[in-house]
Amino acid sequence: MWLLAGSSAALGAGLPSGEGREAVEVQCSVCHPVSRISQSLGYSREGWLELMGTMVDLSSDPARRGAIADYLAEHFPPNERRAPTLLEGDTDISFHEWVVPTLGQRSRDPAEAPDGGIWWAGQWGNLVGRIDPMSGEMREYPLPPGSMPHSVTLDRDGGVWFTGNKNGTLGRLDPASGDIEVVDMPDPSVRDPHTAVFDDDGLLWFTAQHANRVGRLDPQTGEVELVAMPSSGSRPYGIKIDAEGTPWVACNGSNCLVRVDPDTMALTEIELPHQATTVRRLDIADDGMIWYVNSGRGRLGRYDPRSGEVQEWPSPSGEKSHPYAIAVLDGVVWYNESGMRPDALVRFDPVTETFQSWAIPSGGIYAGIVRHMRPTRNGDLLIHQSATNRIIRVEINR
């Protein structure tokens, strides 16, 4: 954790005057801009206390904790400015939550291992962790300084790979020994490995958003190859591999998808229809269709790589819903509306073209963003609420 640079007045810009403001400015700016407070759902005093308890332990200073909660409850009570449009339907789901140990770590991107364990990245805590779903036991593994892992990806041998999003590395944790091997980027300007995925040959493909690169690591040799995106400012984000072994990349900075030749690493850009389109993530259905979230326009999209046809559907909560994570399960598309409070989980049936959605809980409050979702082996979903240190399994009752 660190304090953001700047004066107290700058840190608290936009906060209303009142008793407790200074405590909020100092405490809340340790991990994030205080502007995020006004962007929240708003809570009662009890709700603010619960949310604060997921970020920092102030039990030794109850007076300070109370002053912060009083101020926040007075000036930021519950509101519906960003309330999602929730749609009913026939599918029944339930949420199973785990609260990870280290406060304020921004837990994210859970993935299921072959043994059923669930791994996650604690980005701000500079760690990766494992949950035993049967016992609830958790273990956290500290990473090399400055790694700030953006995601975890599991290899076929049980290794846990992480993307060093702040120090230009890819790393592998051996869960049995706790040993960590690190691979540096060959270009020092590529400091932000972002999302990674293995192909069937055991090669690790990854994006580097701000460096505007796509990369490939051969774990056997340690060799890393990097290629620049066709257009500047594309900001490659999500990446998936289709059934033929071809990587596909989402553009978070422009209206495109990118196809990667798995042999030559040549990139082919597919322009999506509207210039305001930006794509956080994508997934690939069994029939080869590329499903993507149009984060910039609040839509769900589908690209047919055979015909080139693009079709989009407005997300239930509208153009400001900012769809983010996405997964296709049994032909059904799941994603979240991260611009809403609470964050909404959305189900879309391509056959009937109907939506259903649910508010994603964070304990007794609603205060998080799903940034990645992945299926489990039995067809459930793994998601998270990064603001409240929660890993969540969405159990889909069929």
Automatic annotation (TrEMBL):
By what name is this protein known? Cytochrome C
Q: The organism's lineage?
A: Bacteria, Pseudomonadati, Pseudomonadota, Gammaproteobacteria, Oceanospirillales
Q: Which organism is it from?
A: Halomonas litopenaei
